[in-house]
Amino acid sequence: MTHLILGSAGQIGSHLSNYLLERGERVLSIDIEHSEWEDLRIQDNVILEEYLEECDMVYFLAFDVGGAKYLEKYQDTSEFILNNMKIMSNTFDSIWQVGKPFIFASSQMAEMSYSSYGMLKALGEKITKDRKGVLVKFWNVYGKEHDEEKSHVITDFIKMAKEEGVIKMRTDGTESRQFLYAEDACEALFHLAKHWSKLPKDKEYHISSFEWNTIREVADFLDVVSSCEVIPSDRKDETQKNAMNEPDPFILKYWKPKTSLKDGIMKLYNLED
């Protein structure tokens, strides 16, 4: 099976590429981080059109996005909004013209209408459903990251704990998240891809741990692991505003997460050595 990963240098795409290659799958990848010619904002992208002809499955993971600090800084800017509108318009059109099966990566934030990022993902969901793709919603996937500006909270906390001995929190930590280890997310995507033809296309596939943890709990666990100091802020979460919408459990008929939050943090902590 030949897999085309759009956004292959991103948080999920980079892990998915390695996961598939380790299992002997053929992987084609596109990401602006590799080359300016792989910029999906470009109409009639030659590389995209070529790879679409070769592949059996498309993973639409490409988006201008990062963790909470990145979203707070950029998501309401015209550049952020237009970047993602161009990526979606060009990519959805190209996939539609070739008629390849695809999985579109959305987020639980698609239900948060106050978020520009969420609204953009919600538009992508509507297009996916209309064009009979498979819609997945990711819930705070964490794993090894390389771009500090776009990094997410668990990676940030590990870096601070190791390098500074102090975790300086951006909020008071009372907000809750459902965190999922990257390898579990990759397993879910691979499973959905293999069974794509039999999957109901009117369902949403929420790729989550289905367990709530506060940000402060993450910091406190790292305090135990590394004997670091934890300094919470007095700020509340302004990115997701601690929205507690629940994931749709339909995907549990096909896949279940394997890695607990503590085990995942320990794996990542040791990887960062």
What would you note in describing this structure?
The protein has 273 residues and is α/β, with parallel strands linked by helices. It has a single domain (2-271), classed as 3-Layer(aba) Sandwich (Rossmann fold), CATH 3.40.50.720. It has helices at residues 11-22, 46-54, 68-74, 78-98, 116-130, 153-163, 182-194, 215-226, 261-271; strands spanning 2-6, 26-30, 57-60, 102-107, 134-138, 141-142, 166-168, 176-177, 180-181, 204-207, 213-214, 229-231. It has a 6-stranded parallel β-sheet, sandwiched between helices. It has a two-stranded parallel sheet with strand order 6-9.
Concise synopsis of the structure shown:
This protein has 273 residues and is of the alpha/beta class.
Give keywords.
single chain; 273 residues; alpha/beta; Rossmann fold; six-stranded parallel sheet; two-stranded parallel sheet; 41% helix; globular
